[in-house]
Amino acid sequence: MYECFLEIAFEAELNTNEDPECLALAFEQCNENPVTRDASIRELRELIYERGECKPHRTDDAFLLRFLRVRDFIVPRAHKLLVRYCNFRAEYPHLYKDVDLWGLTKVKDVYEGSMLDRPDVGRLTIFRFGMWDPSEFPVEDLVRVGMAMAEIGVRQPKIQVLGGTVIIDLEGITLRHIATLTPTIAYQMVCLMGVATPGRLNSCHLINYNWLLNSFFYIYKRFIPQKAWGRIFFHGHDLKSLHQHIDPECLPKRYGGTCRNHVSIGQWIQKIKKYRDAQFDKEMKDLGYLIKE
Asked: Where's the CRAL-TRIO domain (predicted)?
């Protein structure tokens, strides 16, 4: 049953078509009005050309819609996010240019996620930083995976609308991990959580941390926008506190949950490779990724 669910979920993972349920949620959660949507897209496109602050690699309706949805269809805010997105890509091309997308399976269980995509949680992603062995691959690969996940996930209309929830599990974190977290790496990771990408971050939860949290979080906090602090929660080892924000039905057993529909990033990328189509390959190549057979 579990494998059957995953196969169905991954077939839908690359679906970029709108559906009535998604459109209804877009009205509720993104202030999206079907009557004025096309006009808002045109307004954003005209703003790009008028101001000349960025040169996005795409300006088609589907692409611009991502930025409008995450900024509640307020065109100036969507434009500002698009400028940050373009600047981020221009500043750090090594995070995607000529990166072998299928080779990112190397990170294995450091990232995992739920395929439930419920309106109250969105896409749940779990970052288990302590599972990473710094001697196996550089910390930049963790950022590369995060960027690829963001680009692939936001292709789906339902993810554009529902957004995502992040759990940062710091169990097993050591000074070896902390030593890799330069201000640049910290800035890049914060940017990938909605600061410079068209993704809606519903909330972020830190769990299973020890005294090293002060060092870990000190590096990050300078880059976190003031308005984002209301969506960041610290639970320590208190799972009941976590459950007050995330329904246990969405959580794996290790966090006191009942959800079995979790996959590692390695599984996720392998399934993406299996079910991708020509349009997916084109979009990812246009972004700069290597797509090998």
From this structure: 103-263
* H or E element in which residue 108 lies: none
| Residue 246 counted as domain residue | yes
Close Cβ partners of 101 (under 8 Å, ≥ 6 residues apart): 148, 269, 273, 284, 289, 290, 291
Question: Are 147 and 260 contained in the same domain?
Answer: yes
Give 55-114 pLDDT, tens digit per residue: 999 999 999 999 999 999 999 999 999 999 999 999 999 999 999 999 999 998 999 988
pLDDT digits (tens, 9 = 90+) for 245-291: 999 999 999 999 999 888 999 999 999 999 999 999 999 999 999 99
Cα–Cα distance, 218 to 198 (Å, whole number): 25
Query: What is the value of pTM for the model shown?
Result: 0.92
Facing residues of 201 across strands? 164
Domain that holds residue 36: 13-94
102-149 confidence digits (pLDDT tens): 999 999 899 998 878 899 999 999 999 999 999 999 999 999 999 999
CB atoms within 10 A of CB 290: 14
> Of 98, 139, 4, 162, nearest to 153 (Cα)?
162
Q: Where are the beta strands (DSSP E) in 142-241?
A: 164-169, 201-207, 232-236
Residues 271 and 157 in one domain: yes
Say if CB 23 and CB 161 are below 8 A apart: no
Sheet holding 111-114, edge to edge: 232-236, 201-207, 164-169, 123-128, 111-114, 262-264
Share of the chain above pLDDT 70, in %: 96
